[in-house]
């Protein structure tokens, strides 16, 4: 980081940054990583203690690298983090820490729990803990004392819920990835978050079935596995964005993930790793699309399958519907990761039933369907398909 000065015509230093309005300076400081934030203290006497009241603190990989040459780096940077936190004399609204991936840099559970306890007394609003080492460690128990949280992100931890937990009554955004839940932990956590607007539970384990009900949830991201199932068969009246990644073979056997009557307000739908080689899967996805009558954007990626011999419309597959049931749909992305029997049939249905469609993109991976004649044939098939929207642009791409 350079000095924030220029010289005037007399050779004197002019402090341009210090002349900025206070709210602009606060915005600049808020976006600096912790090492650059502390370095601002050497700029001038005015800046010496300015960093200790910045409401956002982030420790990422570059911070840990500063200690690589020490015999015991973990002990030293743990001490520094403790010192930075305890010197802070204002509110800490956001705390972001990426735990280092190297075991040599490993932060102890005791240190992490102590920092979180300190933050809970600062009425922290935003916490993100990313365990880059990917070896599951215990969730700091003091996290559940941070009752003012509005945003909470946790990656690669084991989670249990203490009996004293009274809920995150202000929490709006909850992101959980690669979490191993103790028995009943997830079931205890979710009811304690009555204001959730955004929920992401991906690649987690330790639960069997969750019946999710929320009158406030607008965005949901889940991974569907054979042994861990979400059922959305209760009240989700305002859900607008739904992202589903399949870790099982097919979506259709888990049909209760989509209560079709609850999709009326859905604006965005993403389905990842769908097996479009299966007729049942195709028909079920079509039924979902028909139920989501206000859908604006649809993104689907096909399952990794090598079974199909070609990418072309299946002439035996008729996906009839008497009306333009997708009247609000404007943008569609179909990512074909392998040759998929019914991908083109789905494209044909969407083009014929989407009266407001602006773009439909079929994306093929590099190295597949590379024969120019085959690509030309696919392009001709797309051009010949019936279109409900004369504005629809159809594109076949790689990548």
Automatic annotation (TrEMBL):
According to the entry, every stretch annotated as the F-box domain falls at: 14-66
A family per Pfam: LRR_At5g56370
What is this protein's record name? F-box domain-containing protein
Give the matching SMART domains.
FBD
**Entry superkingdom:** Eukaryota
PANTHER family for this protein: CYCLIN-LIKE F-BOX, F-BOX PROTEIN-LIKE
The record ties this protein, via InterPro entries, to: F-box-like_dom_sf, F-box_dom, FBD, LRR_dom_sf, LRR_FXL15/At3g58940/PEG3-like
Origin organism is Pisum sativum
Q: Which Gene3D superfamilies match?
A: Ribonuclease Inhibitor
């Amino acid at each position: 980081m350079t000095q924030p000065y220029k010289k005037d015509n007399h050779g004197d230093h002019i402090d341009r940054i210090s002349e900025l309005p206070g709210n602009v300076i606060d915005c600049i400081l808020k976006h600096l990583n912790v090492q650059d934030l502390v370095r601002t203290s050497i700029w001038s006497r005015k800046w010496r203690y300015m960093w200790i009241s910045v409401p956002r603190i982030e420790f990422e990989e570059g911070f840990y690298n500063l200690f690589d040459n020490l015999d015991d780096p973990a002990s030293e940077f743990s001490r520094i983090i403790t010192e930075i936190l305890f010197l802070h004399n204002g509110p800490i609204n956001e705390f972001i820490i990426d735990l280092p991936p190297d075991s040599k840099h490993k932060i102890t559970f005791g240190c992490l729990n102590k920092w979180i306890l300190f933050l809970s007394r600062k009425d922290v609003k935003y916490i993100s803990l990313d365990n880059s080492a990917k070896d599951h460690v215990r969730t700091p128990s003091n996290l559940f004392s941070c009752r003012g949280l509005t945003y909470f992100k946790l990656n690669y931890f084991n989670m249990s819920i203490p009996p004293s937990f009274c809920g995150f009554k202000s929490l709006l955004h909850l992101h959980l990835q690669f979490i191993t839940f103790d028995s009943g932990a997830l079931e205890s956590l979710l009811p304690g978050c009555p204001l959730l607007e955004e929920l992401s539970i991906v690649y987690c384990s330790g639960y069997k079935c969750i019946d999710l009900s929320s009158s406030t949830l607008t965005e949901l991201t889940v991974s569907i596995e054979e042994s861990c199932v979400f059922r959305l068969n209760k009240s989700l009246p305002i859900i607008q964005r739904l992202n589903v990644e399949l870790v099982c073979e097919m979506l259709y056997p888990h049909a209760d993930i989509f209560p079709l009557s609850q999709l009326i307000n859905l604006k965005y739908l993403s389905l990842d790793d769908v097996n479009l080689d299966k007729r049942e899967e195709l028909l079920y996805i079509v039924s979902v699309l028909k139920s989501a009558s206000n859908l604006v954007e649809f993104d689907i990626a096909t399952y990794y399958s090598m079974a199909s011999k070609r990418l072309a419309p299946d002439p035996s597959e008729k996906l009839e519907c008497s009306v333009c049931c997708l009247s609000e749909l404007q943008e569609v992305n179909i990512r074909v990761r392998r040759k998929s029997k019914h991908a083109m049939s789905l494209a044909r249905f969407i083009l014929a039933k989407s009266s407001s469609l602006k773009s439909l993109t079929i994306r093929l991976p590099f190295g597949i369907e590379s024969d120019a004649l085959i690509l030309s044939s696919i392009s001709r098939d797309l051009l010949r398909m019936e279109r409900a929207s004369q504005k629809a642009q159809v594109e076949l791409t790689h990548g």
